[in-house]
Amino acid sequence: MFYFEPCPFCGGYIIIISRIEHIDYITTEVICEKCRMHFKYEQNFSYSKNDRAAINNSFEEIWNNRINNT
């Protein structure tokens, strides 16, 4: 299970859309429902189940990284 922090700009809820682009990378987009902030992240991947799980974990860490995290 993944946990994603709210929008860092307004605190609103976020929508996460992930899709496979071509055959070798995945695109993940985050859109805030409140302020419409948009963030796009692309990452290469392979088709193994472990690699797909690693991509989701990696994106969760990137999104949840905040300057004032303690």
Please provide a written account of the structure.
The structure is a single chain. The protein has 70 residues and is α+β, with helices and mostly antiparallel strands. The protein contains one helix and three strands; from the N terminus they run E-E-E-H. A three-stranded antiparallel beta sheet has the order 1-2-3, with no helix packed on it. It is globular. It starts with 13 loop residues before the first strand and ends in a 6-residue tail after the last helix.
Q: Which key terms come to mind for this protein?
A:
70 residues, 1 helix, alpha+beta, 23% helix, three-stranded antiparallel sheet
List the helices and strands and how they pair.
Blueprint: E1 14-21, E2 25-32, E3 38-44, H1 49-64
Antiparallel strand pairs: 1-2, 2-3
The biggest beta sheet, please?
3 strands, antiparallel
Oligomer: single chain
Broad structural category? alpha+beta
Q: How many helical elements?
A: 1
Binned, the helix content reads 10-25%
- The Cα radius of gyration reads 13 Å
Content of β-strand: 25-35%
Residue-averaged pLDDT: 79
* Distance between the amino and carboxyl termini: 22 Å
- Strand arrangement within the widest β-sheet reads 1-2-3
Give start-end ranges of low-pLDDT stretches: none
Number of strands: 3
Topology as a string of helices (H) and strands (E): EEEH
Overall shape: it is globular
